[in-house]
Design brief:
153 residues, alpha+beta, 5-stranded mixed β-sheet
């Protein structure tokens, strides 16, 4: 069987993304891999792939991904703060519905409600391997940790 993996990066001022890889029992991919990139405080013109300018940020790897993949260029944040935005992306539900209306600190005892089903949990059931690297900000203790919310790593 081929080895697949998923990468979910959430980072404050750094670029982040979600790489999902489906591996069939026969060793080949049946469903496509995909990457969702999420970045805090970034504008359209900050990426070289969107508005090439030698005086701006040089983003050659993102440029290559943009050239080779499907780009979705109209995105609206579900919230103006970190935790509610991430919770909405992972659950497909606004903060008032998923229970995350404020930011969680590393010391917070709570997190994304355990009753909420996350995208990685659903994708794991379909054979995707998942990992979270970078800024989580949805609860860090016990059952709220990324590895308890659908991420293998």
């Amino acid at each position: 069987m081929a080895v697949g993996f998923t990468l979910f990066l959430l980072s404050g001022m750094l670029m982040c993304g979600l790489l999902l890889h489906k591996v069939s029992q026969h060793g080949g991919s049946k469903k496509p891999n995909f990457i969702v990139i999420l970045a805090d405080d970034i504008g359209w013109g900050d990426l070289d792939a969107n508005q090439p300018d030698e005086k701006r940020n040089n983003t050659p790897h993102l440029n290559l991904m943009a050239e080779q993949g499907q780009r979705l260029t109209d995105f609206h944040s579900p919230a103006s703060t970190c935790s509610p935005s991430r919770a909405a992306i992972l659950t497909g539900r606004y903060g008032l519905r998923n229970g995350v209306t404020h930011n969680f600190a590393v010391s917070s005892l709570a997190g994304l409600p355990l009753s909420e089903v996350t995208l990685p949990q659903l994708l794991q059931k379909e054979g995707y391997y998942t990992a979270m690297i970078g800024k989580w900000h949805l609860g860090h203790n016990g059952p709220y940790a990324p590895t308890n919310r659908g991420f293998d790593y």
